[in-house]
Design goal:
About 70% of the residues lie in helices and about 0% in strands. By secondary structure, the chain is mainly alpha-helical. The longest helix has 26 residues, at about 30-55. It has helices spanning about 1-25, 30-55. It has two helices and no strands. The protein has one domain.
């Protein structure tokens, strides 16, 4: 459980850094917004994958819950 919390903390820092760098790059309006949405979607999918692993569904190399 502690490793899960440390992993989430490190990945929050990584995604926060990516988010910050994207805000510094002067991208045109639609491209900047799309890039931020893509980063947010990837983070949410990754977080769901980790939390499924914490409850025994998937993640951490335990396999996909629908494939047994």
């Amino acid at each position: 459980m502690l490793s899960l919390l440390v992993t989430i903390l490190i990945m929050c820092l990584v995604f926060g850094l990516i988010w910050w760098i994207l805000s510094l790059i002067p991208l045109p309006a639609p491209f900047g917004q799309v890039a931020r949405v893509v980063v947010a979607v990837i983070f949410v999918i990754w977080l769901i994958y980790l939390l499924l692993g914490a409850v025994g569904g998937g993640g951490f190399g335990l396999g996909h819950p629908l494939v047994h």
